[in-house]
Specification:
Order of helices and strands of chain A: HEEHEHEHEH
Shape of chain B: globular
CATH architecture of chain B: Alpha-Beta Barrel
Oligomer: heterodimer
Order of helices and strands of chain B: EHEHEEHHEEHEHEHEHEHE
Number of domains of chain B: 1
CATH topology of chain B: TIM Barrel
CATH superfamily of chain A: HprK N-terminal domain-like
Strand order of the largest sheet of chain B: 9-8-7-4-3-2-1-10-11
Radius of gyration of chain B: 17 Å
Number of strands of chain A: 5
Shape of chain A: globular
Strand order of the largest sheet of chain A: 1-5-4-3-2
Helix content of chain A: 25-40%
CATH architecture of chain A: 3-Layer(aba) Sandwich
Number of helices of chain B: 9
Structural class of chain B: alpha/beta
CATH superfamily of chain B: Metal-dependent hydrolases
Number of strands of chain B: 11
């Protein structure tokens, strides 16, 4: 399943400029502790977090994530969006909780192998 | 230059997690006894015991600085320290506004929060919850307190919880912190410097983060060489400018 497909299935709001995001998602990670995400999330994953700080864009592009979903209606900093656009990293927002987002991703077959 | 022994992170019994023995008078009296000449009182998101500490500081000849351990929106602890009580009252209004939607304290779960006077007399119990994050982001806490004259540092960045480094993964150059605090559990970091690049090469501080008198006395302090005990001088010392010096990792030897 690719980034566009999960965005459609979960009815996520796109906040970055990217138009097409057809990259295949290889797995997922859910955490708000960014130091932990740096160590645990892997290239190609989708990351679910409630942090809107611009470090999420830096970490996401550093790891090579397929996308970030900011959950719980968290306000995302302008700087986060600017930096994600510079790195062509798709970021989405949703009012759903991290629990719901993760559950739905799992139900769509996005599991870590 | 004069030499000072400074501890810039100490809790009173206003913090729900601190012991009732941590009255401002008791802390300042012990500071004087053990030669701690500069002291910042830093309760969680509150300043209710600072006037009493300032009064006790005058009595015992200890320089007390009004401080606060703020929990920012990212759930990290940031310490702000001012020169004067007036600066702190202005800052407290900002924090109260940013915490106005939080529920009242549950003292069974978090602990009691006492305000006392400089002679250890009970004044009131703080009913608002001092635990929990405010609505201000880290950058807001730092910029807004600095514009009011504060010295600002990230608390216990080496620890797994409530650490700005832990929450954000790295501390970027955009955050205008004067220093980062290394807790006593990771004192080896002062030499090892494993975290230095992740914290943007900011200067290290070591404080007791005392919640009991024993914590306070046994915890690490800093040695400062300053012209006078002020925020501006501490900033110069942290930056190693104009002959001022700041040396973390000092322990009181005679217990």
């Amino acid at each position: 399943m690719n980034v566009n497909q999960i965005a459609k299935e979960l009815q996520l709001t796109r906040v970055t400029k990217h138009e097409e995001a057809e990259r295949e998602i290889t797995g997922g990670y859910t955490s708000d502790l960014l130091s932990n995400v740096m160590g645990q999330a892997k290239d190609g994953m989708v990351w679910v977090t409630m942090q809107g700080h611009h470090n999420i864009a830096a970490i996401g592009s550093l790891i090579g994530l397929a996308a970030i979903i900011v959950s719980g209606g968290t306000n995302i900093e302008e700087e986060t969006i600017t930096r994600a656009d510079e790195n062509e990293l798709p970021i989405f927002s949703t009012d759903m909780s991290s629990y719901e987002v993760t559950g739905k991703l799992y139900a769509l077959g996005i599991v870590n192998k | 230059m004069k030499t000072f022994i400074g501890d810039f992170h100490v809790h009173t019994l206003l913090s729900p997690c601190a012991e009732v023995e941590m009255t401002p008078h008791h802390i300042v009296m012990r500071a004087a006894q053990y030669g701690i000449s500069m002291l910042a009182i830093t309760d969680h998101n509150a300043s209710g015991n600072i006037l009493a500490a300032l009064e006790a500081g005058q009595k015992y000849g200890v320089k007390v600085l009004p401080g606060m351990e703020v929990e920012c929106a990212e759930e990290a602890h940031i310490i702000v320290i001012f020169d004067t009580w007036e600066q702190m009252t202005g800052w407290q209004k900002i924090i109260d506004q940013a915490r106005s939607t939080l529920p009242p304290n549950n003292e069974k779960k978090f602990g009691k929060q006492f305000v006392v006077d400089a002679d250890d007399n009970f004044i009131r119990e703080e009913k608002r919850m001092l635990f929990g994050a405010c609505q201000l982001k880290a950058a807001d806490v730092i910029n807004q307190s600095k514009s009011r004259g504060a010295l600002v540092f990230a608390a216990h960045v080496d620890r797994p919880s409530y650490s700005l480094l832990g929450q954000l993964g790295f501390i970027g150059e955009d955050l205008q912190l004067d220093a980062v605090e290394i807790s006593r559990q990771s004192i080896g970091e002062l030499k090892e410097k494993k975290l230095k690049s992740l914290v943007g090469n900011r200067p290290y501080m070591t404080n007791s983060d005392g919640h009991t008198i024993l914590d306070f006395i046994q915890g690490p302090k800093n040695i400062l060489e300053l012209k006078e005990p002020s925020i501006e001088e501490i900033k110069l010392a942290l930056a190693g400018k104009d002959g001022r010096k700041f040396t973390p990792g000092y322990y009181i030897k005679e217990m």
